[in-house]
Amino acid sequence: MTQRPVADSADRIGILENQLSELREKIFFLESDIKNIREEKEKYQMIADFAQNWEFWIDPKSAFIWISPSCNDITGFTPDEFFKNPALFYDLVYEEDEKLVRHYIHDSISFMQLGQDIEFRILTRTKQLRWCEMNSKAVFDPMGRYLGQRCSIRDITRLKIALGHIREITEQNVWESKVKQRYRDELAGKDRELVTSLIRIAQKNELVSYLRKNLSVIRITLPLPIQQKVDTMIVKIDEHLRMQQFSHEEFRIHFERVHQGFFTRLAGRFPKLTAKDQRLCAYLLLGLSTKELAGLTNITAESAEIGRIRLRKKLGLTHAQNLGSFLHEI
User: Fold this and answer.
1) What average pLDDT does range 258-284 have in this prediction?
2) What CA–CA distance (Å, rounded) separates 286 from 195?
3) Percentage of residues in the chain having pLDDT higher than 70
4) CA–CA separation, 81 and 59 (whole Å)
5) What is the dihedral of CA 191, 195, 197, 200, to 10 degrees?
6) Per CATH, the architecture of 53-167 is what?
7) Cβ of 259: how many Cβ atoms within 10 Å?
8) Whole-angstrom Cα distance, residue 281 to residue 308?
9) Among 130, 112, 113, 133, which Cα is nearest to 122's?
10) pTM of the predicted model as reported, rounded to 2 decimal places
11) For residues 294 and 301, is the Cβ–Cβ distance under 8 A?
């Protein structure tokens, strides 16, 4: 009877040691994830800061969330000046174009227009007149929640000067232009639905892979009977990940409904591409990121990037050619 407290104490110490070991493992993976996120953030920040176009992100209430430094090259004003004075953006817009710009941003945020560009004029800090072209794209978080619009503005003044004047188009051309724009809007909407579904699959696969990795590490600290149960769980996870091949076939069917004949044209121009290469082309055409590609294909982000590089070589692209633009032309 006198030995019971000592035994209970030893059991509690063993439990605490196991819990401490699990916490250390979780901390290790969290630190690794934080490091990867920080590195990715630095890369994206570098790209964003040196973008030639003026990029900015507005929330669903039209407030600025982020503005690229290139706004200074186009307008003469810094990002801080736009944040301090939200009305500055519309103050720069040429008076006759202000209504057009306000309607465009309002319609973008409320999804009343998709995939459209507008041209408008601004007066810079030094009162120089510049022609600009703006387009916007919806921003969603990993859970699919709408976060506003990413807008991109480029200076097209030189292009306008080269053209010499704005050509007037006939009523027939106007009608044809509206029909084509309506088709592009419908196509953009279907693409957005397909991309949203793919992103959800990628996020689910990423979570499942993360759980599998952690189960593989934790199992060695568990008693043998529990290890066997964990092994069964890992086998089921692997089976689930392999079953995603059927999702790829389903994706191909849905993709062809929107982009009819794409795979046929692609195979005709590049007969040596594998089915995996063709599927990657379709993902890239939809604008999926490297991380999303990795989640969909159950590989690392590094492997996904290598696959993208190899695909460029198979397609015979130069460094100056944009892969996404090239695929859109097929």
Assistant:
1) 86
2) 7
3) 75
4) 18
5) -170
6) 2-Layer Sandwich (3.30)
7) 20
8) 9
9) 130
10) 0.39
11) yes
